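Q: Give me a protein?
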Amino acid sequence: MTHQPTTDSPHPGVYVGKADHDAALDHGWLLGHFKDADDPRHTEAVEVKWGVHPRGDTRAQWVTGEVRTALLVLVSGRFRLDFPGSSVVLRERGDYILWGPGVDHSWYAEEDSTVLTVRWPSVPGYAARPQAEERRPR
């Protein structure tokens, strides 16, 4: 099934979209192994997420046993990453953090926040859960 872009594509192998719209269709994910094989956004090399998180949004549980590397960039808001024994708060547009395989983590939106996350590689077996499952009051 070929996904119809939100705007006109200049070429059949090119996808033109809008992150806010497209991310809402797939739990924030824009690119990765989980997209249909005939979708230009299908790749096993990397995953990209446009995360829009209201103030107070948090992961339902810690990520453990991670096998990927991740880069998270703050687009807007104030966003906290929690690691065993420490936390890092991204406060200004463009603040970013990178962590590698084996680093347990969780997150919390201290303000309404938008973040761009890039993870690699895109590993089958890691499924995006519905956002309602990821949210719980703090």
